[in-house]
Design goal:
Strand content: 5-15%
Number of helices: 8
Oligomer: single chain
CATH class of the largest domain: Alpha Beta
Number of domains: 2
Largest sheet: 7 strands, parallel
């Protein structure tokens, strides 16, 4: 029996690479995202690796939609073995100017949806006596930076939740871990490099080293492949005793 994985926010960026890696490993994949061509993205990966896939555009701001996403996944595939809570949004602003609506949405997508999805899948994983919940947190779940109050709060919260779920899941072979990347060179970050180069009147190379990667010991972006490979490791049958842990893939940022 092929195992099934659901990866939220998997039609672009980090999530797409994670979902594709699971497909390459033979997993059936429930894709999720906001891209209008999400179904085509999912089908292309499914055809490439000859695995069953499906797609949902469920709104993670709504608890009932998150619960519906879990129900739909189990209905289509029969099982759900691995849940990767990857979807996230960001907004940067000094606290006094931070819009309340932005704060609410960041907490809802980055943290509350993790709770709703994990709660909804819990009974299925208990029945299976197997479950792997992998939360994509951030180095900002371990360290803080200015002007990211909502994001840092949410990512810290996810790490706390990860520990609790690990303890509750231990009797049922349900593990829960967090992956905490530093800067990853996604298209979104690429555009930020261009913008910051103009604002600071710096070269792109200087923006990368002196602004973005300033806090990292290794002045390189974290590869999406490294994140995906870590997720695969945490999902393995043999990873039963790896639980309640936060893995920093951050070029040494959190070592300081």
């Amino acid at each position: 029996m092929n195992k099934t994985v659901l990866v939220t926010g998997s039609t672009s960026g980090i999530g797409l690479v994670i979902a594709s890696q699971f497909a390459k490993e033979g997993y059936q994949v429930m894709f999720h995202g906001l891209e209008a061509n999400g179904n085509e993205i999912a089908n292309e990966v499914g055809e490439r690796y000859n695995v069953k896939v499906a797609f949902s555009s469920s709104n993670l701001l709504r608890s009932e939609d998150v619960e519906g996403l879990i129900e739909e996944t189990i209905s289509i595939f029969g099982y759900l073995h691995v849940l990767v809570n990857n979807a996230g949004i960001q907004y940067v602003s000094p606290i006094e100017d931070f819009p309340n609506s932005k704060y609410k949405n960041i907490i809802a997508i980055n943290m509350n949806a993790v709770f709703y999805a994990s709660k909804a899948v819990w009974s299925q994983m208990k029945r299976q006596q197997f479950g792997r919940i992998i939360n994509i947190s951030s180095v900002h779940g371990l360290r803080a930076s200015e002007f990211k109050s909502a994001y840092v709060a949410a990512k810290h919260g996810v790490i706390g939740m990860t520990k609790v779920l690990a303890l509750e899941g231990a009797p049922y072979n349900i593990t829960c871990n967090a992956i905490c990347p530093g800067y990853v060179k996604t298209p979104l970050v690429e555009s930020q490099i261009d913008d910051q180069a103009k604002v600071h009147k710096m070269t792109k190379e200087d923006v990368i080293e002196k602004v973005m990667l300033k806090k990292q010991a290794v002045k390189q972006f974290v590869s999406v492949e490294a994140i995906a490979e870590m997720a695969i490791l945490l999902a393995k049958d043999t990873s039963t005793t790896i639980t309640g842990t936060s893995f920093a893939l951050d070029g040494g940022w959190s070592a300081q």
